[in-house]
């Protein structure tokens, strides 16, 4: 059954043996090709690329050994079985050195030949399956490597949210989409208040813990489709599409302020912090991306200068205070 998946090139100068081989193998292999000397065999090999070559050794024009040497230089994996009426040590050694898969003495016992061919076919099948498995594993490794490189380039290592590069790319895409669809975009810039004091007082590991905790808390109050990014240090951004209700944005800003002021435990310490928020809107405030970021930044600094837990819209300089 295994042989039916493979093609065989039979190289032999005796026409009668060709006829016998045709009777034996015509229904047992995928395809059987015939050549009558090594030169013909080499030409047919290049044309047909058979899975197995079954060849006599002593032939006119070009011997089976010479043909095998040329083919093995091109393809070390090519499967070979040799037949010969000569039971000489040097011929056997030459065949072994070439790297053949078997040697059958003439007159050929067809049962033994059939068994040898099946063994070679099974070996080829196993090698192909191994190569397929290795190729699949390599493809998986490359995909994982590419994914890892993508994540390193696009996501913050500490908090596992989009970084500044991906934020800029996403904001550009979001504004472009809003222009096409006549949509709206709201940009929050969020900066933690006095975060440097946390690092200075409790250490950078505590600071990292605070950042991760606040990110996780904010993720709980925003939608899955909202884009929450870390721009660097203690600066964050939030991109919200298609929300035309300013009151909803006020409520969201209040929620972000509230979850940012929750007491954070670290080892035996309790750490309290807050955030300042600036909000700008496309297209109400501007249709320029750079201005949209700048306006949110100005509103955020206005909030920061007004104390803890503030948020400001660009269009409204009045502070919003959470008590």
Under the CATH scheme, which class of the largest domain? Alpha Beta
What is the radius of gyration computed over CA atoms, rounded to a whole number of angstroms? 37 Å
Count all strands and give the number: 13
State the order of secondary-structure elements, H for helix, E for strand.
EHEHEHEHEHHEHHEEHEEEHEE
Structural category: alpha/beta
Oligomer: single chain
Distance between the termini: 81 Å
CATH superfamily grouping of the largest domain? Reverse transcriptase/Diguanylate cyclase domain
**Low-pLDDT residue intervals, each spanning 5 or more residues:** none
State the strand order across the main sheet: 7-8-6-11-12-13
Shape designation:
rod-shaped
What percentage of the residues does DSSP assign to strands (E)? 15-25%
| DSSP helix fraction | 40-55%
Q: Number of helix segments?
A: 10
CATH-derived architecture of the largest domain: 2-Layer Sandwich
Molecular structure report:
The chain is α/β, with parallel strands linked by helices and 323 residues long. It has two domains: 2-132, 3-Layer(aba) Sandwich (Rossmann fold); 164-321, 2-Layer Sandwich (Alpha-Beta Plaits), CATH 3.30.70.270. Helices cover 51% and strands 22% of the residues. Strands 7-8-6-11-12-13 form a six-stranded mixed beta sheet, sandwiched between helices. A five-stranded parallel beta sheet has the order 2-1-3-4-5, sandwiched between helices. Strand 1 (7-11), helix 1 and strand 2 (31-35) form a beta-alpha-beta unit. Helix 2 (38-48) packs parallel to helix 3 and helix 8 (204-221) packs antiparallel against helix 9. The longest helix is centred in the middle third of the chain and has 45 residues, at 110-154. The radius of gyration is 37 Å and the shape is rod-shaped.
